[in-house]
Amino acid sequence: MESYEKTGYLQEPFRLFHLRDTAIGEVGLHYHDFYKMIVFYAGNVTYMIEGKSYVLEPGDLVLVNRNDIHRPTIDFSAPYERSILYISQECLESCRADGYDPFLCFEQASAKKSYVLRAGDFRATEAGTLLARMEEGDKRYGYEAEKILLFRLFLLAVNRVCFGEGREEIARPAAVCNQKVIDLLSYINEHIYENISIDGLAETFYISKYHMMRQFKSETGYTIHRYMTEKRIAAAKEKLLRGVPVTRVGEECGFQEYTIFLRAFQSCVHMTPTAFVEARKARRSGRACDLP
For residue 243, how many other CB atoms are within 10 A of its CB? Predict the structure, then answer.
């Protein structure tokens, strides 16, 4: 069975990288339990998110929601340069204010199924200027405090553009996708906790189930069953961390039997639900642990 890993760890509210690679190994399908922004500067990269593929252009801002399955395909005939921001759920929550929702840019990306904002010369935008200041001069006095303020202003600038109040013109470039597969993805996510069967999907979309399964695998890289399992387990982890009893979580997340839930959880997370909760508690308290 394929395994689409949760990768990357985030203990601080947010983390910023500026990377320029000339060669890295093939990046497989994966997801994170935090939010991710990528500002693309140079290279030949196609970015796939939830079944949609974008040929990136310099200045593109890529928005990846937590638990979105994604991967880049990189042609290293040119160096791949980008800035990456990892942002925790708690960090975004802390930025809320009256009349301001810091999740707006991510929620729009998900609702519109459009995960790339195209600003042309991103460095010349308000958000680009703020990001550059975050990346420069980490030795100056008070930089850590300043970085937090700059991050909040950067996030606000991005969300203002999404709300239609930014000074820059932002486009949402078209993606390469199979519309039938996108419709399938949308339907699955809307009914993810229900008893979805392959036969039922084929009947709903008036398509041969074998053709449907081949198309889904070809376009997304994973099977329908594995996609549903990963999404349900991602939801299960959130419920577990909110204190929902293990015996209820499986049922609430669409697993018909506890033993099925347990096997699926261990397959995806490589530990039991109880061990997962204990590991997360240990990580938050600062004790060392190995959490996939």
Answer: 7
* 37 in Cβ contact with 154 (< 8 Å): no
DSSP summary character for residue 27: P
Tell me if 289 sits within 8 A of 283, measured CB to CB. Answer: yes
Q: What is the pLDDT of residues 15-30, one digit of tens each?
A: 999 999 998 888 888 8
In terms of Cβ atoms closer than 10 Å to its own Cβ (0-12, 13-18, 19+), residue 218 is: exposed
Backbone dihedral angles phi then psi of residue 159, each to the nearest 5 degrees: -70, -30
Count of Cβ atoms closer than 10 Å to residue 11 Cβ:
9
> What is the distance between the alpha carbons of residues 175 and 265, in angstroms, rounded to a whole number?
32
How far, in Å, CA of 78 to CA of 22, rounded?
7
The whole-angstrom separation of Cα 226 and Cα 217 is 10
* Average pLDDT score over residue span 36-47: 96
C-alpha angle 86-15-241 in degrees, rounded to nearest 5 = 60
Query: Could you tell me if 188 and 231 are in contact, meaning their C-beta atoms sit under 8 angstroms apart?
Result: yes
| Helix, strand, coil shares, percent, the chain, to 5 | 45, 20, 35
Tell me the mean pLDDT in the region 264-276.
Answer: 91
Q: Locate 261 and state its tokens.
A: 């839930």
Residue 255 burial (10 A CB sphere; 0-12, 13-18, 19+): buried
The CA-to-CA distance between both ends of the chain, in Å, stands at 18
